[in-house]
């Protein structure tokens, strides 16, 4: 009786390891690792776009409108709030949340603990920005729209004050939250790159 009859052939497990697939075709660690980097890049870009959008309102749109009269302010903001409700904005607005959350999960599954923590921090910051948006900015936008056609508004100053006194500082908060999320994702991206060397 030869002792090597029960030895497992060297090629028996090689295909699973080589392809990065678990038995049955499920995605294994190698596949998840390949998706983690591109998704982290996408999350960083989306977060940067949201931070840039809010920042643009802080430094140009709102100061520019503030320099004008009440009627112009109210009319312009009604048009802006209506125009921003489009597919491209919706894709980035929701996509930043989804991509960041999934990126954090993939970093965790790949064993990159520090990168995952930074991505998770970015997710939390963006969730707070979403809550602020839905709890404050959107209701104010709706109130501004409910004021009606500018041709029928009698007290533009009151409508403007009710909107701007809260909307403007809260938008600055959204800018800070998304900028923090962008910095956290950038750090996660750096750590991801280092782990791949």
Rg from alpha-carbon coordinates? 25 Å
Give the N-terminus to C-terminus distance in angstroms: 48 Å
User: What is the total domain count?
Assistant: 1
Q: How many strand elements?
A: 0
> What are the segments in which pLDDT stays under 50 over at least 5 consecutive residues?
8-28
How many DSSP H or I helices?
6
H and E order:
HHHHHH
Strand content of the residues, in percent? under 5%
Arithmetic mean pLDDT:
88
Classification by helices and strands: mainly alpha
What form results from the Cα inertia axes? elongated
Provide the helix percentage.
Answer: over 70%
Largest β sheet strand count, sense and barrel closure: none
What does the secondary structure layout of this molecule look like, with pairings?
Layout: H1 14-19, H2 29-66, H3 70-83, H4 87-109, H5 113-146, H6 156-195
Helix pairs in contact: 2-4, 2-6, 3-6, 4-5, 5-6
């Amino acid at each position: 009786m030869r002792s090597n009859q029960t030895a497992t052939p060297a090629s028996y497990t090689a295909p699973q390891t080589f392809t990065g697939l678990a038995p049955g075709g499920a995605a294994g660690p190698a596949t998840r690792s390949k998706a983690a980097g591109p998704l982290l890049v996408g999350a960083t870009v989306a977060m940067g776009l949201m931070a840039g959008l809010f920042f643009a309102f802080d430094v140009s749109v709102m100061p520019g409108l503030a320099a004008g009269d009440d009627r112009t302010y109210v009319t312009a903001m009604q048009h802006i709030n209506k125009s921003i409700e489009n597919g491209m904005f919706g894709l980035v607005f929701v996509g930043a949340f989804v991509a960041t959350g999934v990126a954090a999960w993939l970093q965790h599954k790949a064993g990159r603990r520090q990168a995952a923590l930074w991505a998770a921090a970015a997710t939390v910051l963006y969730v707070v920005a979403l809550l602020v948006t839905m709890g404050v900015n959107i209701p104010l936008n709706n109130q501004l729209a409910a004021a009606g056609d500018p041709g029928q508004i009698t007290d533009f100053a009151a409508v403007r004050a009710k909107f701007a006194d809260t909307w403007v500082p809260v938008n600055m908060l959204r800018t800070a939250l998304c900028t923090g999320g962008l910095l956290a994702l950038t750090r996660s991206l750096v750590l991801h790159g280092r782990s791949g060397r």
